[in-house]
Predict the 3D structure of the following.
Amino acid sequence: MLSSCLPTHLVTVLASLLPAASPSSPMQLDRSSHVDLLVLGLGWTGSFLLPHLASHHKDLTVAATTRDGRDGTLQWAWDPEQDGKDQYAALPRAKTVVVVFPLKGEGYSSRLVRGYEESVGQRVRWIQLGSTGIFDVCPLFLWSNAPSLLQS
């Protein structure tokens, strides 16, 4: 089944894009903290990504955010209308940032990158996964093999 293969493939791709890390001790996270990987908007991805990283990439330091701070994540929500670095003050410095939540507006990607990098004072690697959640029209997945209007 494709859905059972996707998480493993996604984790492998993400891990291959990360720089080599050195082991570190547990830390209090704030703007002066450093992590190898910061996952913004953990959500469903966290159900397989964090356990995989913890068991297969123990040398990586990882921090993640959720809107409510559940399961040991940092409580953080991005406000696309707020410019500047203030909204990033609670986030640690990261070598690589993975954006999981959907960026739905024009220019939002560049605004997020600019604001975070300004906040931490350095350039970082970015991976934007986004989410198909913005396309959900009903809670049940309905399969359709009807031909597309774009097919010739």
